[in-house]
Amino acid sequence: MKALIINGSHRAGNTDILIERITAHFNQNQIETRELVLRTIEMKLPDGCEKCAESEICPNVKDQFSEEIEPTIRDFDIYIIATPTWDDGVTPLTKIFWDRIVSWCSEKRLSTLCELSSFVLI
Q1: Nearest-CA neighbor of 91 among 4, 3, 14?
Q2: Please, which residues have CB within 8 angstroms of residue 16's CB and are 6 or more apart in sequence?
Q3: Model pTM?
Q4: Using CA atoms, how far apart are residues 83 and 122, in angstroms rounded to an integer?
Q5: pLDDT at position 10 over 90
Q6: Is the CB of residue 83 less than 8 Å from the CB of residue 9?
């Protein structure tokens, strides 16, 4: 089993401490864990093109996330999004991340990805 923990905090702090504890627990239980720290990667806003509106992968936004990160994070069993609150919501980094992966849950992909994976927001 593989878990991806997405760190949506803008700075090092309590979210990092929480992720360290979760990672230690997962490692003790033989769950392979990878952390994606959003503040350390280039991730542009989605452009809202027709492809984005149809839940397709946007061909227009090219950045570190689309070219290096996104292709490597689709094959996990568990997704945990760890984010501090930001004005009673998630941080802007987390919101951008969520907007960039919305294409994963299109009608075409629901049966293969979204039903097989677990998303947890902490």
Answers
A1: 14
A2: 7, 9
A3: 0.80
A4: 7
A5: yes
A6: yes
Q: Does the structure show a pLDDT above 50 at 116?
A: no
Strands 32-37 and 78-82: unpaired
What are the φ/ψ torsions at residue 34 (nearest 5 degrees)? -130, 140
3-class secondary-structure state, position 79: strand
Q: Which of 36, 40, 31 is nearest to 4 (CA)?
A: 36
Mean pLDDT of 60-83: 91
Tokens encoding 112? 């293969």
Q: What is the spatial distance between Cα 83 and Cα 90, in angstroms, rounded to a whole number? A: 6
Q: 16: closest CA among 2, 45, 41, 37? A: 37
